Structures are given as structure tokens and as C-alpha cells.
Amino acid sequence: MSAVGKRNLLAGGFPGEPADNFLFSLSMGVMLMTVRDLLDSKGKDIVSIDVNSSVDDAIRSMNARKISAIMVTEQGKTVGIFTERDVVRSYITSGGKSFKDAKVRDAMVTNLIVAVPDDELNDISAIMVEKNIRHLPVLDNGRVIGMLSIRDIIQTQVKTLTSEIHYLRDYIAG
User: Fold this and answer.
1) Which residue numbers in the chain have pLDDT < 70?
2) To the nearest 10°, the Cα dihedral for 113, 116, 120, 121?
3) Looking at the DSSP assignment, which residues form a beta bridge with residue 143?
């Protein structure tokens, strides 16, 4: 596409078309959804558990809230994340020790990969797939402000693409 064409697209329309006939598109790369956009629509609830809690406590807390990851804190500061995968890892590495006797501290992931509000969802989804991550804490000014799951991102992308397909069909049909 020429520079003029790009300028017209960024201004909001196809060359020669009014701006209000153009849908900004993820796939066209014109306007991309950010982590902030997704958190604003899904909410910013953060569930956490103390680092000295048992794995059993973490499992029960996640089950009660129907979530599959929980932030781990120590004296109010985030120190890690505990997920369903960590339940399995805890069982294997503890030699079958009871979840009541196993500590979250010994099972959590501490080397966190995080997102920030201005990250684009396309970039975040690529990182999550590449690193095999299902849950991603969102940090703002060093503080956890939300949690994204790969499911959140996929659902958002499917909705966006479905809307885009609908719009483009209507546009083509006239």
C-alpha cells in the first residue's frame, strides 16, 4: 500500500470513502486492542494467597472462585503465581506429600513474565503461546492490577474477528 493509502486508512477511511465507513481492524494492524482495553471490559479482580499457605488452601481458594491461577503474596508484596499446573508439579516434586503439608512457597512460579496496560493483545498472545503461559499478571507502576488468561485473549480476538467479518460482509454487500 502506498504512503497515501496508509495515511487515508489511519485517517479513518478507504481512499475516496468517508471515514465512518471504515472499521478499525486487528488483522489490518490499524488499531490494536491493548491489555488495558481487555482489563476494562473483563474486570480487574485479583485473587491472592499468602506464600506460607498450604497448597490445599490454594486449591480450595481457586476452586471456590472458579479460577485456575492465584497470585502469591508475602507481607502484601507479590512474590509469585500459583496455577493448576503447579498443583501437579507440587505433587510430583513432593513425592506425593499431602497438599495440606505442601507449601505454596515451594510450588509457585517466581520468575514471572508480566504484561503492562499499554501492551497490545496480539503481542501478549504471541508471548503466551511461545512461552506456554496460560495466565499473565498485569503490572502498572510495579503493582499487580489484573490477570489475563489465554482464554480471555482468545475470546476477545474471536469477538473482534466475528464483528469484523460481519462488518466486511455488510460493506461488500453494499
Assistant:
1) 1-31
2) 60
3) 140
